[in-house]
Amino acid sequence: MLWACLRFPLLPLEALARSDPDDTPLAIAEGATRPRILACNARAHAVGICTGMDVSAALALAPRLRVHARKRTLESRALEEIAQWASQFTPAPSLEGEDSVLLEIGGGLKLFGGPERAIAAIRAGLPALGFSALAAAAPTPTAALMLARAHRERMIVDAALLRRELAPLPIAAVDCPEQSMQALADIGVHTVGALLALPRDGLSRRFGPGLIATLDRALGRLPDPRLPFAAPEQFSTRLELPAPAWEVEALLFGSRRLLAALGGWLRGRGLGAMRLRLDLIHEDGPPSLLALNLSTPSRDPAHLGALLRERLERTRLPARVEAIVLATEQCEPLTGRDLSLFPGVEAAEDSHLIERLCARLGDEAVCALRPYPDHRPELAWRTHPPARTSPALLPPGPRPLWLLAQPQRLDQFLRGAQPPVALIDGPERIESGWWEDRDVRRDYFLARTRSGQTLWVFKEKSGTDPDSWHVHGIFA
Amino acid sequence: MSAPLHALLEHANLWRGEECARTVSALASGFAALDACLPSGGWPQAALTEFFLPIEGIGEFALLMPACAHLTQAGRWLAFVSPPHIPYAPALADAGLDLSRLLLIQAESRRDKLWSLEQALKSRHCGAAFAWPKQLDDRSLRRLQLACEQGESSGFLFMPEAAAINPSPAALRLRLAADDAGGLEIRVLKRRGGALGQPIRLDPRRPA
What pLDDT digit, counting tens, does each position of A235-252 carry? Predict the structure, then answer.
């Protein structure tokens, strides 16, 4: 077993600031009567704001500082999003406390190529989600948690070394009540090593059995089961924007965070998205809905982001957006980890072009054609979705490359400007469709005009205007 | 050949017209008479080709059918960007095209049409893209030419005769006209590797 602990010390800030593309001073405050700064971004830090400062003092330092109240719901939602994303590394991520996620990565070490690479892969993915983490790993979850709480980004692989490695950690790394911590400090116990050296029964009597149990779990003497985070069957996450926006770039910036999380969730399940739904929540009024339909499943955040950009640029929003909800509506199995290594990439890129076109022009603007078995020329073809094979049907006679959407009267087509046309082939009688309303009875000819055009013309044999001449196609 | 001349010909800085013409890879047109006159022996690949027509329906599209059939059978896509009429599926199938490789794109605005054409040309899976603009400015043409180079695809533009006076970066510019016998008269306005005086006459519906 190898447990990785991801601890997010800046979670109160990042839960909100990660969807904010512009780099202005931003701080999170907590406290009802005298709010104090809990966390602030680098820009705020640069103008002298630090944690623990009064909000009024901070605002005096930087009048343009944006201060938001801490929202614990946002933090727990962010932590759940991270757990969903992390399901690509472990079948059972679990949430720990207010700011940590535990991942059992021991089972997947072979897949990732060793513990160092696994941790590196996890760390490499987090910036795209907009979080910064302290990552530590140890054979027991409690030990991993202790390392992360002590800000030690270490990795202990061998369980026999646990005791030696944990000994230098400060006792603040141990999860125990504040007054126990104070009492331990009073008797001169400052490190975990010193704590472990104390007699067990005495510790148990003074500080209760909880402390001993925590230490035993950390050293692997007691079982330490964790409750896995139960991810919902469909991915659905909400992202709050720190300031309402309707600029495409700002919306795209936030959406990319969600797409990165979605990518991890899909990879963990071996799926690709076929239909995505993006709800843009406005301050008032119903949300704007964007649907993304893909022709082949995909979980590539860059590709999905490019599609979304086209769609966003085409959409007129009625008001500013204050939150974005991304949800999957339909997913399909997508196997293979590195598609670029396999020949399958060709098919995937074909559909990238089609999806890009559809995203900008609309789904109905892009189609393929196929012949259809009907004798009536206007019904002898159909549109259908691109990239599907159709049976080859060869026509019985010469057919023009252009078909007019509606047959036009010959005199109107020529606009009276040209002398009569010469018939060079025909007739071909087409008579069909008596069983439905669109009855057709025509003699088709190839005709050449003086200016050199070859036309597909017919002489009407029935209907309201018999013996009239019409143009139906052009031999382009 | 004398030694000094030979040495001169070997020189890297010497530019030779025929070599330049051969650098453009080509797509056989299916018409021997035409291939003989086109630099590198076919439609330019990774470049733009412009056709100037007095009127539609003189066999201008039939001229491209053998090359289109070849491209689709090789698995590459064809994109028709906002064609003036319905490309008739039975006739296309009859010309030997694999219709599963065909993409019909209906864009409304001029900007969307250009964008779609550029996207199609840029995609390496599209072998050729066709468009029917009334006129294109130099900047758009350059963008399209660049897209062709990027995607190694052939762009074919069908334009009215009047547009032929504008300069263009296209690799090949042809003026088409119907001749009295029902065939096609092709004048090469521009090609890489020197001008051609004589027009080419052929029957676009009978590849040979």
Answer: 999 999 888 888 889 899
User: Is B61 within 8 Å of A402 when comparing Cβ atoms?
Assistant: yes
Residues 119-138 of B with CB under 8 A from A: 119-120, 123-126
| Mean per-residue pLDDT, A93-114 | 88
ipTM of this complex: 0.85
Residues of B within 8 A of A360 (CB-CB) are 112, 115-116
Cβ contacts of A318 within 8 Å, gap of 6 or more: A282, A285, A288
Whether residue B107 is predicted with pLDDT greater than 70 in this model: the reply is yes
**B199 preceded by cis ω (within 30°)?**
no
User: Which of A209, A200, A201, A134 is closest to A173 using CA atoms?
Assistant: A134
B91: nearest CB among A357, A368, A399: A399
Residue B40 has pLDDT above 70, yes or no: yes
**Residue A389 phi/psi, 5° resolution?**
-80, 150
From the list A361, A369, A400, the residue facing B102 with the nearest CB is A369
The mean pLDDT of chain B is 86
Cβ contacts from A onto B, under 8 A: 153
pLDDT in tens, A382-435: 888 876 777 777 888 889 999 999 999 888 888 766 666 788 887 899 888 888
CB contact under 8 A, A366 and B103: yes
What average pLDDT does range A261-288 have in this prediction? 90
Beta-bridged to residue A100, according to DSSP, are A7, A96
- Name residue B121's amino acid: L
On whether the CB atoms of residues A292 and A278 are closer than 8 A, the answer is: yes
Q: Name the residue among A181, A131, A138, A182 with its Cα closest to residue A146.
A: A138
- A positions 345-404 inside 8 Å of B (CB): 346, 349-350, 352-354, 356-357, 360-361, 364-372, 380-383, 386-390, 392-395, 399-404
Helix (H, G, I), strand (E, B) or coil at A195: helix
The proportion of chain A whose per-residue pLDDT surpasses 70, expressed as a percent, equals 95
Q: Tell me which of B78, B88, B112, B184 to substitute to probe the interface with A (most A C-beta atoms closer than 10 Å).
A: B88
Place of tokens 């630099």: B39
On whether any CB of chain A is under 8 Å from the CB of B152, the answer is: no
Domains with residue ranges and CATH for chain A: 83-219 (no CATH), 236-338+347-361 (3.30.1490.100), 402-474 (no CATH)
Among the partner residues B87, B112, B119, nearest to A401 by beta-carbon distance:
B87
Q: Round to whole Å and give the CA distance between A177 and A196.
A: 17
The pLDDT tens digits of the residues spanning A306-365 come to 889 988 888 888 999 999 999 999 898 886 544 444 334 444 556 688 888 888 888 888
